[in-house]
Amino acid sequence: MSPLQIKKGSTKHSAYNLRPTFSEHLETHTLAVIVDNEPGVLARVIGLFSGRGYNIDSLTVAEIDHKGHQSRITIVTTGTPQIIEQIKAQLGRIVPVHGVHDLTVEGASVERELALLRVAGQGDKRVEALRLADIFRAQVVDSTLDSFVFQITGTPEKIDAFADLMRPLGLEEIARTGVAALARGL
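The structure assignment produced for this chain is given below.
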């Protein structure tokens, strides 16, 4: 048997089989990564995740310092505490990375996401969609005789709840930006 083959029932794990045991628990962390704004940096960061079998739940990227040529990558990922620490350590070793901040453990943070939802419906379903949008403080940004496009901002959980309520009313399509997050005031 080659070193790459694992016997049935073996306790060895590959990098792609990172399922937690009963003693491990999964945590969701929001990471803010400050990087040089240059070609290929995002691909290197994403390559770190895909190459090791880690998942990205949400990803946003934007330039934050035009003169200093820096961007901020906000990544929401889930893993065991050990895997989260590995991710942070490996991100910190990538040359164009200037800093890795785990907003989940560094203190209180503010997280928001933007979503656009197209909901088709007529009659009572149309009225109910508008009523729910008002409750969730969603805005109508486009309207036709057969559908609405709603814009909603808030936590990912708020957007999930709004989408769940819109499904039976005719939710056709949803586009989400991913999480943007900042640490709260010092």
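Interim note for the steering committee: The longest helix spans residues 81-93. The chain has two domains: 27-102, 109-183.
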